[in-house]
Design goal:
One of its GO terms (biological process) is cytoplasmic translation. The chain has 9 helices and no strands. It is mainly α.
Length: 263
């Protein structure tokens, strides 16, 4: 009987613990749901950016309507991508597109492609932009350099207007040379047709004299080398004759005039 009471108490205790755990799980689930609802209520509304040339009404309709399982929208998305360029994107969008296209490129250097940067700065980079330096085979990186900041349309327009007003934009070659001429200082000789002809004649004469001196030096060097080879060959022949005379017991050529050889 005591054993039955203990077993009954144990079962009752386990039942209470299970109910308690269930209540705790339900309480935690309710708190999580409440917290998630508060986050959704306090989250600012996301404003969708509409690409240039696309009717905002069609974008909103596509967002609210349930996508039809019988309609293929890939062609429409491709058309939108064709008209999109970096001029219509913010920096976040630009970076995402660059990263999505980066996987097809094989680079051999850490240098950033100049055509890539120019296309971005000019607002011509897009989904279907092709690098003039070989497309995906370009050896340079198609990645935004560190510290790069995408300029807005207004900033680019202001810079272009400033450059158009710059005196360097309309400066001709003649005006540039005239301005540089006024910067010259010291005693100088003006260039005239007569002075130019004299300078040209002196320059040609000097060049001809230099070429003649080089040829004379080369000829002297060749003559000296030839004479040295002849003298070396004569010494070698004389020593060979002396060696042979000594070997056969004959009178050496140098001793032929000195008397008769002893017995």
């Amino acid at each position: 009987m005591t054993t039955n009471l203990k077993n009954g108490g144990t079962v009752e205790q386990k039942k209470k613990e299970a109910e308690k755990a269930q209540r705790e799980r339900e309480k935690k689930a309710a708190e999580d749901a409440k917290r998630e609802a508060e986050l959704l209520m306090n989250k600012p509304a996301q404003i969708q950016k509409v690409p240039f040339g696309v009717d905002p009404k069609t974008v909103m309709e596509r967002k609210t309507e349930k996508r039809s399982l019988y309609t293929d929208t890939r062609a429409e998305e491709e058309e939108v991508k064709k008209v999109e360029t970096s001029a219509d994107w913010d920096e976040e969008k630009l970076r995402s597109v660059v990263l999505s296209k980066k996987g097809n490129q094989k680079t051999t250097t850490d240098k950033v492609c100049k055509y890539f940067v120019t296309a971005i700065e000019d607002g011509k980079y897009g989904w279907f932009w092709t690098c003039p330096n070989g497309g995906d085979k370009c050896m340079y990186k198609h990645a935004l350099p560190p510290g790069f900041v995408l300029k807005t349309k207004e900033q680019r327009a202001a810079e272009k207007a400033l450059m158009d007003k710059s005196p360097l934009k309309t400066l001709t070659l003649e005006e540039f040379l005239e301005s540089e001429r006024h910067k010259l200082t010291g005693t100088l000789t003006p260039v005239t047709p007569e002075s130019f002809e004299k300078w040209k004649k002196d320059r040609l004469s000097k060049k001809a004299a230099e070429e003649q001196a080089i040829k004379a030096k080369e000829a002297t060097g060749r003559a000296s080398s030839r004479k040295l080879r002849q003298e070396t060959e004569a010494i070698r022949e004389r020593k060979e004759e002396e060696r042979l005379a000594t070997l056969h017991g004959d009178v050496a050529p140098n001793d032929a005039d000195g008397g008769t050889a002893g017995v």
